[in-house]
Amino acid sequence: MLGFYTGNDQTCGGVSRREALRIGGISGLGLSLPNWLRQQALSDEAARPKDVNCIFLWLLGGPSQIETYDLKPHAPVEIRGEFQPIQTATPGLLVNELMPKLAQSSQLYSVIRSMTSTVTGHPLGHYYLNSGRQKLPGFTPAGFGAAVMQQQQSAADVPGFVQLGKTYRPDVGKGGYLGRKFDPIEIRQDPNRGPIDLSNFARPDAVDMDRFDGRQRLLSALDAYQEQVESQAAFGVTDSFYEKAFSILASPKTKQAFDLSQEPDKVRDAYGRNRVGQRMLLARRLIEAGSRFVRVQGHAFRGYDTHFNHWDTMRKELPVYDSAYSALLEDLQDRGMLENTLVVTVGEFGRTPVINKVRGGRDHWSNCFSLTLSGGGIKPGQLIGESDRTGAYPKSRRLTVPDFARTIYHALGLNPHDEFHTNDGRPIVALPQGEVVRELV
């Protein structure tokens, strides 16, 4: 994204005007801008927790801030809506009456209530919030999980980057400009309906290992031939697919992670016997087995795009979210995993403060919305930013999507100044804008 304005201090290539003046002095001492950025990244790295993994719960459609973490009980009825607020364990934070478990566990997560975005539509919003970069003609940003895979190592016997559920667009939050080899393994099945079927990656029982090894050598030979006759991009897709398939095939540890039958009924019930709850439980098992980044499609029904049937949709979706998210946080804490597992819940944007009287819903609203972060070194129980009396605009601590992305990068130990090159040789900086939300780290 070019020319983005992050606040009162303009930026150029992700460096503020104030910092640019300071760098001017540094350059006189013989330290160039690239070297300065490199040193800054190394300095930041020293303060970051190591080996932090991530579970990223994607709330398709963009949930209403006024029905989740930014209730307005004293506003007119056409703004505050039908639901009642309940007090949480976090001073100043009210949540929807449909979220009683998250009210009790609010000291495990922090809320940003003053997020803003320049994107108002679903497709581009998906790219933006899953990467911190906007999709432009000829440029598809790499998702957070792909950045983890590119910059860091993962266990060889488990998939490092997993997508649970189908994405809205086929390339959202995936390898993007880094290439298809950084795409996640995508599991679309609903784990609540039975065991995950990995037969597509499994060795047929009738094929012994000698014959199987021969087939794998044949595939390698075919790949070598394919490299000569196909484009590099197409070969990358095939190579990545085979590599991931054989990785899953060869790893009993991965198969065990996908086996939810090993979990006690009490645990499965706590997460919720629905596709969101069981995907969140599966995400925890994958992280525990060694996966680095698991993105979960977090809607149980049609998602949060509530232009109409708003109240009925909230009554269906929010209890599912409440159980799954609270159970995950408590489970991670009980297992000693929360400190090294960043958990994010976010959608594309928020919803309009005023209810659409014609259709009985709330429309797209990117001027002010809420999201949560927890674990992974994030300070819990924090309430960042405040909206105005109607939840329409930030009243304090206005934050942008690049700020959100920088905070994720910081928590995961990623270098936002890392420079990559596209297939046609264009240099790309990982995150050229944004500042870490220091109150959280």
UniProtKB/TrEMBL annotation:
InterPro entries, A to Z: Alkaline_phosphatase_core_sf, DUF1501
A Pfam family hit: DUF1501
Protein name: Sulfatase
Species for this entry: Symmachiella macrocystis
